[in-house]
Each structure stands twice: as C-alpha cells, then as structure tokens.
Write a structure and sequence with these properties.
Layout: E1 3-6, H1 11-14, E2 18-27, E3 33-37, E4 41-44, E5 52-58, E6 67-77, E7 91-102, H2 113-122, E8 126-131, E9 141-143, E10 155-165, E11 177-186, E12 197-203, E13 210-217, E14 221-223, E15 228-236, E16 244-255, E17 261-272, E18 283-290, E19 304-306, E20 333-344, H3 346-349, E21 351-361, H4 370-375, H5 378-383, E22 385-391, H6 397-400, H7 402-429, E23 431-436, E24 459-464
Parallel strand pairs: 2-22, 4-11, 14-21
Antiparallel strand pairs: 1-2, 2-3, 3-5, 5-8, 6-7, 6-10, 9-10, 9-19, 10-11, 12-13, 13-15, 15-18, 16-17, 16-20, 20-21, 23-24
C-alpha cells in the first residue's frame, strides 16, 4: 500500500497528519464488476512476497447464484505472437494463487485498514480478498523487440484476474472479467558482499614466459544508473606485447522454459590504448568506469528490461536472485551481469579475457510512515485519511502497439526521403554539366585586328551522357583477282 503524507499549513500547529491512499480501479467491460487495489508493484523479499489485498465491487442482483473468484496468473511468453498459426501458441499461463471472493469464505483473513476504508466508501456490495504469491517465481521481465516485430514481447508478466463463474476452473468470459497487470520486483539486499575478483594466465606456444591478468571490482552490488568501477592489472612476463585493452559490461539472459537458450548483450563498453603497448617485462594498472544504462540500448533486440505497465520508462532488467539454486529452471528467464576485460596481442599473439560477475538491481526500499498509522487509534485514522482513486483504462492491442506503429511510420517516411534523394542523385549522374563562357558582343574593329572577348556571364549547358558503342568485327579484306600472282619470296 503506497501511502503519502500530506500536511496543510493549518495542521502544522496542531500536529495533525493527513494520509492519502492511492487506489487503482479497473472495471469489467459490462460495468457490473470492479476491482480496487492499493498498488500494482509487489516486492519479492526472497523469504516472502508482499500480499495482494484489494476490494471487489459488484452490482446488486447481478450474480444470480454464481460466484466471484480472484486469481494471480503468470504468463510466460517464449515466442513471437505473429508466428502463432493454426492454434499453436508460444506462451504458458499458470495460475499461481486463487481465492473465492463471493460468497466470502468463513476462514478469510480480516481486512486491513485500507480495505475497511474502501468498504465504507463503496457500501455493502463490496467484498475484500487476499492473495499470496509463491516465493520461487520469476520477477517481471521483458525482452525488447526489433523494429519490424509486432505483437506481445517475450518475457514474464503477472496479472490479477477477477471473474464470475461457478468454479475456479471455468474459462473467464471477456465481458465479465477484470484483468489488471501487476509487477513483481526484486530489490538489492542492504548488505554488500565481498568484492569480486578474477585472474587468469596465458601461455604462448614456442615462447617462454606467461601473461597475467587480474580484474577486480570496487563492490559486489550496483544500483541502476550507477558507474561500475573496474580495476585491471596486467603483468607481462612473456615476449609478446599487449596492444589494446577493452572493458565491457555484458548482460546474460538464460531462457530455461520452452526452447532453452542463452543471449549475450554488451550494454556498455570502452576500449583504450593508454599505457600500451605493454612490452615484455612491464606491467599496467588502470581503472575504468562504465555506466550500463537502457538509454544506449533502447533499439537493441533481445535486451532484457524490467516489466512495464504502460509505455512508461524503465531500466535494464535486475539480476535474478534465488535462495535455492535447484529452483533455477522454474524462473523461466534468469538475468545476470559480468564485467569482461579482454587484452589484445595482435594477430599472432591472440587474446586473453577474464569475466567477473556482479549484481545490478534496484536500491533497497526505504521505510514508510505506515507504522505511525498502525499505532494511531482507528477512529483518528479514519478521520485523517483520504482516498485518491485512479482509473486504469482497459488496454487493447492497438494501445500496446501504438508507440511501435508511430515509430514504424517515422522510419517509413525517412526511408522514402532517402529513396527520393538517391533517385535524384542517379538522375544527376546521367547528365554532364559543363560551364561555357559566353562573350558579350565586341565593339566593331578593323578586320585586320582580331581580339578575343572576355567571358562575363557563364551559363550551364547540359548535354546527354555519351553512348557506349560496341565495336563490330572488321570487314573482310578483299582478295586479289590477278590470274598471275607474284611468287612468294624465299
């Protein structure tokens, strides 16, 4: 529940606090069913996940002996939607949590302060619900599409589904179902671990000595938009020369469900020749700073980013954390990052590379003022709170692809302009332009004296390009008809 503290000038003297609760609402297409939740982002704390608490409003006399169910559905898409033909789908829908909203079960959890506040506002036709997501489940992540790809992107999405039916296994009808996208995030732990470090050695064929490389980072956990500090130490005990050093941050995406595979994307890199060449018997120690950011990788296909609710800005996907390595295959998409350093010794010397893993995540959550509300008396809380309800519009495929279509139209216009400019250049190449001086009429002079006029106004005369004439075979030489030809000379 995201609550914000609002103080008015008059309340600063009486020390009275007003808490405003931001509530999200979405209704079914028929308008008979609505859902209210306090937030759409939920945190995975590894040991537990934030519960989903909300309210469902029903129109009076609408159900007619039917029931209302709430479910949390995880959708894992591992293929393009445009390739789905003849009933073949490249997505899996898994219901990870389910609960009955109406009629309310006898073992239901008591409502919290936000649900009680909503129930007083909505009336007797509102009912609370409580859902808990499992711990061993992936976070919201999306793989970026190419410019020419359409449809839903690959990745993991979470959805809150409220529908009317007779049992939880019924297929929800579109007109009486509410689908609200939610996100599941993981945040960085508060404590830093050991500084990661890696070293490697290379030997050369028919050459004595070795080349040593050591890579170290200044810390283990980095937050988004923060620079990653890399310290490179080179010790050259061979007879080769190090000519170039390249440092890069690589995003590793492992797909375990569906068609398994690995994707490597370089999200930041820097190449330097300072201090090079490192001659035999010498060494080099340098520090590099790289900032892996999504701004430089927005048009790259296959880069993993955190899940989006709309067309809002996001960042690179956070590193995936799990307590049990045996549950790695259950996450579907596992994201990790490494800092890679490569030394280049030329064509004959080859290369030497080392990789150091690190964690890139969102910063830890700060403590909110929710504890003050819980300790205050219930009557004072009800009087000092207000609700801010935001309507969540139903998104169709046209809404999801609107930004992509606009980008495609811009690319199409740019392509047409380039084609027109190219055609104009081709037309200009077919014509030679020469400048011929045009003389003014000279004054009458004696015929014996001839003067050359001075050019003043040059004009451009266009003549067609010369035609290439293919040479023909030479005509045969006529033979002599003399009856007494001369004798050949010896």
């Amino acid at each position: 529940m995201s609550n914000s503290l609002v103080l008015s000038p008059a309340d600063t003297h009486t020390r009275s606090m007003v808490f405003s609760f931001h509530v999200y609402r979405k209704s079914a297409p028929n308008g008979k069913l609505s859902v209210y939740v306090g937030r759409r982002d939920y945190t995975d704390h590894l040991t537990h996940v934030d519960p989903i608490d909300g309210m469902v409003w029903l129109e009076k006399d609408y159900l007619k002996d039917r029931r209302v169910f709430a479910q949390v559905v995880m959708t894992y898409r591992y293929g393009r939607e445009e390739d789905e033909v003849m009933g073949l789908t490249f997505a899996r829908d898994m219901v990870v949590a389910s609960a009955q909203v109406y009629p309310a079960p006898s073992y239901s959890k008591p409502p919290n302060s936000l649900q009680e506040r909503l129930q007083k506002k909505l009336g007797a036709n509102s009912f609370p619900f409580h859902l808990e997501m499992p711990c061993s489940a992936p976070a919201s992540v999306t793989l970026q599409q190419g410019k020419e790809e359409t449809g839903r992107p690959c990745g993991v999405q979470w959805e809150l589904r409220i529908f009317v039916g007779t049992n939880p296994e019924d297929q929800p009808q579109r007109r009486s179902c509410v689908r609200l996208l939610i996100r599941r995030f993981q945040y960085a732990p508060a404590k830093q671990g050991r500084k990661p470090m890696a070293s490697c050695t290379k030997e050369f064929l028919l050459s004595p000595g070795k080349l040593h490389l050591q890579v170290a980072l200044d810390r283990q956990i980095y937050y988004h938009e923060e620079p990653v500090g890399v310290v490179v130490t080179v010790s050259n005990q061979s007879n080769k020369q190090v000519k170039r050093v390249k440092v890069s941050v690589v995003q590793l995406v492992e797909v375990s469900l569906g068609p398994a595979g690995h994707v490597r994307n370089t999200v930041a890199s820097i190449e330097s020749q300072d201090g090079c060449p490192v001659v035999p018997g010498a060494g080099l120690t340098r520090s590099f700073s790289l900032v892996p950011t999504l701004r430089l990788n927005q048009q790259r296909r296959g880069v993993a980013v955190d899940g989006r609710l709309k067309s809002e800005d996001t960042n690179l996907a956070s590193s995936t954390l799990f307590t049990n390595p045996g549950h790695r295959d259950k996450f579907g998409i596992v994201v990790s990052y490494v800092a890679r350093v490569k030394l280049s010794m030329g064509t004959l010397g080859g290369e030497l590379a080392a990789e150091v893993p690190f964690t890139l995540m969102n910063p830890p959550l700060e403590e909110t003022v929710g504890g003050d509300v819980a300790e205050a008396p219930r009557e004072e809380v009800d009087k000092s709170t207000r609700l801010i309800i935001e309507e969540c519009r139903r998104l169709s495929m046209s809404d999801l692809l609107e930004a992509q279509r606009s980008q495609e139209s811009v690319d199409k216009e740019d392509k047409e302009v380039e084609e027109k400019e190219g055609q104009t250049r081709e037309d200009d190449d077919d014509v030679f332009s020469i400048t011929k001086p045009v003389s003014e009429p000279a004054a009458p002079q004696p015929p014996a004296q001839s003067t050359t006029p001075t050019p003043t106004n040059p004009t451009t005369i266009q003549i067609p390009a010369p035609q290439i004439i293919t040479p023909q075979d030479p005509a045969p030489t006529p033979q002599s008809t003399d009856p007494h030809p001369p004798a050949p000379t010896k």
